Amino acid sequence: MDFSKVMQERRSVKKYDQNVKMTKEKIEKIIEIASLSPSAWNLQQWHFLIVTDEDKKQLLQRCAWNQPKVSEASASIVVLGDLLAYERAGEVAEEWAQKSYVPSDGKKGLIDSIYNFYEDIQTQRDEAIRGASLAAMSLMLTAKDMGYATCPMIGFDPEAIRKEFSIPDRYVPALMITLGKGEETRERASRRSPKEIITYETF
What we know:
By secondary structure, the protein is an alpha+beta fold. It contains nine helices and four strands; from the N terminus they run ααβααβαααβαβα. It has one domain: CATH 3.40.109.10. The longest helix is centred in the middle third of the chain and has 25 residues. The chain is globular and about 55 Å long.
């Protein structure tokens, strides 16, 4: 599908065909493409908790204010941000040296730069949320391109999800996405015009 058409036709779908079960291969293909999203130093701060088991979806629904779409969709995905993604700095430096992005003797400097940048806890959280959100948008657009519907969600209890699904402390739940077959037939809500949301140079 043409990209502009994907953008224009993507909607937040709240009702899904419960008879449609997506294969693991289809879901993983969407994730694979979404993982091409950008991230600082290519640290790829995202991780995806994919819930397709019916009992587990019911459990997740209870953590999400009992919203029906969580269990009705083929899959419900908790998009997680990795607070400790910077610990992969060594892997990044090694690959960058192999690809001549940095000289071999520049690896230590790169690693030090990454660790210094992520020294602040707030920065770790900001980057985790930022990276996860970039990947989440890519996931939704990829799904639309492949003929599937999605809906981003912030209506959930992150600590309940952490507890019920044994999420390690290094991950922060950024948002949820429902995924499956469905459509939104209501007229799209209006969007603010460019002149309302653009400021050139400075305020």
